[in-house]
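Data availability (excerpt). The following record was deposited with the supplementary files.
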Amino acid sequence: MTCSLEIKNASKSFGDKKIYHNISYSFEMGSYAIVGENGTGKTVLIEMLAGVSLQDAGDIFLTGIGNNQSQQYKQNLTYIPGRPVFFPDATGNDFLSFISSVKKYKKSNNFINSLIEGFKLAPHLDTKFKDMSLGTQKKLFLTTIALGDGQLIIMDEPTNALDDTSNRVLQEIIKKISQDKIIITASHDEILLNAINPTIINITTRPVTSLT
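Predicted structure:
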């Protein structure tokens, strides 16, 4: 199934500070990167698209599926936050089993096994989340890209704390799966951006009134 991600006249403020005002944009299948200096609102936009933070006005929806607060939307979404958070005493295997059950997908598939190998995660699958490094936590979250058949993948600074080998694995994943999914990344990483050649959305002003 093909779909598009639509932002229609969305606005977002924190107190009297307007971050986005009446923005509209359409994402089709492919890779996109949200770029801009710190404080311009990249993470705010990512969190709105992921349904983590609600827009104050307007709509965000996947065509034919639902808006960013619907169960259908979330079922089609894989979200990789900038700083992963999970139950501190859960192991890597617990995490993968939990996400697999939420996505209603078997975790023992070839794609996820290849990511576990590529990210060198096998020695950490019995480690508790609280005892993992940030890089290991991030790689564990990134393996969920392989779970489910969702149309939308949203990542906030996915290369933070990753080693060079893992960065190259991530680059190849994005290039491969962006052929039939919508992938949106907020990133400062020029090496990643040059490798995946995304459509660039540059946020430079506040409040943001258009995405171009």
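Summary of structural features: Helices lie at 42-49, 71-75, 92-103, 110-118, 134-142, 164-177, 190-196.
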